[in-house]
Amino acid sequence: MVNIEQYLRELPAVDSLLREPPLEALRGSLPRKIILAAAQETVERHRQRIRQHCSRGEPIDRESLSAATLACEAAARAESMARPSLRPVINATGIVLHTNLGRAPLAAAAVQALARTGGSYSNLEFNLESGRRGSRQAHVEELLCELSGAEAAVVVNNNAAAVFLTLNTFAAGKGVIVSRGELVEIGGSFRIPEVMSASGARLVEVGTTNKTYRRDYEAAITAETAALLKVHTSNYNILGFTASVSAAELAALGKARGILAIEDLGSGVFLDLTRYGLPAEPRVQDSIAAGMDLVTFSGDKLLGGPQAGIVVGRRELIDRLRRNQLARALRVDRLNLAALEATLRLYLDEEQAVAELPIWRALTARPEHLKERAQALARRLEAVFGPGRVELWAGSSRVGGGALPSADLPTYLTVLNPDHPGPEELAYRLRTGDPPVVLRLQHDRLLIDLRTVAPEEEALLAAAIEKAYGRRSD
Ligand SMILES: *Cc1c(COP(=O)(O)O)cnc(C)c1O
Fold it and tell me: Within the chain, how many helices (H) and strands (E) appear?
């Protein structure tokens, strides 16, 4: 007969557990509250374990109830409780703008701007020249005008907010004409028809899924029409028998009929992507040059900056956006603004932008170079996993983030086929390790794509894999 009381008496008290060396050692570095909670939770876990075992009539190894064993477990628990919930992750998926992993990592210059501005007061809304109140928009507006050729700019929290604010300001209670081929869903809860109705505007659909002509827009214009809206189909392609109306044609039609022409570019880039072997993506400056009244885009997609929504266009229209009561609710935060300014400054020199923005480094990485890196990693890991368990495959990376859906970026993958633990368990240990590593699990293999791993993260990645593989399963 297994005696539950006897086992429970054997469990160390929380007080004595706290005096064990592994927990004593944490005293200086972790808050007392966390160490105490970890000790209590550990004792409680073993209490439940004893009850479960006893109810099934199974004996328990006494050593597993010793103060020394519980102290080690409690120390590990305390360390994991003390770790921040939101922390850096190594992205070995090869998906460059991974929405779940925070989209674009920032350039070093943007990170420095965050640190500089975050820890002190700043001239966020203070004009140092005049000593009077200033606008937070002043820090980026000139840069945005310089890069886009627009007269004015305003930055809000994200592009969803930019589109919403634009529609609400100019089209509440009125009609906005959109092609049926451009009724985009971005994922999450951003869908053009829904955003339109939330903003108070009335959606007027024209054309068909694959073909929309200038005459379709023209026929739908009434006295109630506020705007023509062109939405970039950023996360899908319509191929085959297709027709759409260009930004220039739509802008000309708007002008001729006295209504606004607005374009939601989604990603919004300033670079000519075809120079880098990528599919063409409409540039912000081209939409402005085409005569669009207002153009909206994101800060953290192909721009490679922080989360932000940017509207560029005509001065009087931008001023009206700023005066909307909702602008305050949707306004950009000072840290994002600091990072955005630093990011935009890099674009003043295209070469510098491509060299220093992590997403451009990833997107323009040469396959031969990726192959060398993947090979070096494979050699290192083969020493750990054994011969035949590590391979080098040709594959492709993705842009992600709802941008360039058909871009195929040739890459090389370091492929692991571990036995003990198997691929699923190893992927789990890597995700829950420190730093966490996220990779692709496919064909019962672990696929590592170094395109999205910075060279300075490589040693950390290799060490994390070795540690996860060697970790005792408990
Ligand atoms: C991504 C995207 C949005 C939303 O932008 P967020 O910055 O994610 O809010 C809106 N419209 C289009 C066309 C997009 O691609």
Answer: 20, 18
Sign of the four-CA dihedral 261, 265, 270, 273: negative
The strand pairing partners of 44, in sequence order, are none
Nearest ligand 1 atom to alpha carbon 162: 9
Joined tokens for residue 226: 């506020």
Residue 214: pLDDT over 80: yes
Structure tokens at 136: 């937070």
Closest CA to 159 of 231, 283, 262, 264: 264
- 8 A C-beta contact, residue 70 and residue 43: yes
Give the tens place of pLDDT for each residue, 157-187. Answer: 999 999 999 999 999 999 999 999 999 888 7
Pairing of strands 390-400, 95-97: parallel
The reply to whether ligand 1 has any atom less than 6 angstroms from the CB of 184 is yes
Which residue from 284, 308, 393 is spatially nearest to 104, judged by alpha carbons? 308
How far apart are the C-alpha atoms of 458 and 378, rounded to whole Å?
A: 12
Rounded Cα distance between 263 and 159, Å, is: 12
Q: 167: part of which helix (H) or strand (E)?
A: helix 159-171
Closest Cα to atom 14 of ligand 1:
266
Atom of ligand 1 nearest to the CA of 233: 13
Which residue puts its alpha carbon closest to atom 11 of ligand 1?
266
How large is the average pLDDT for residues 389-395? 97
Report the distance separating Cα 347 and Cα 93, nearest Å.
27
CA distance 113 to 341: 8
Between CA 307 and CA 197 the distance in angstroms is 24
Q: Is any ligand 1 atom within 6 A of the Cβ of residue 400?
A: no
Question: Token pair for residue 235?
Answer: 């996360």
CB atoms within 10 A of CB 46: 21
**Amino acid symbol at 305:** G
Q: At what angle do helices 138-148 and 334-346 cross, to 10 degrees?
A: 30
Tens digit of each residue's pLDDT (9 = 90 or more) over 75-117: 989 998 999 999 999 999 999 999 999 999 999 999 999 999 9
CA–centroid distance, 103 to ligand 1, in Å, is: 12
Locate the ligand 1 atom nearest the alpha carbon of residue 307 and give its number.
Answer: 7
d(CA 154, CA 452): 31
DSSP-derived 3-state class of residue 423:
helix
Q: Report CA(190)–ligand 1 centroid distance (Å).
A: 8
Which domains are delineated in the chain? 4-82 (no CATH), 90-99+362-470 (3.90.1150.110), 107-356 (3.40.640.10)
Instruction: Give me the sign of the Cα torsion angle 277, 443, 392, 99.
Output: positive
Q: Is 283 helix (H, G, I), strand (E, B) or coil?
A: strand
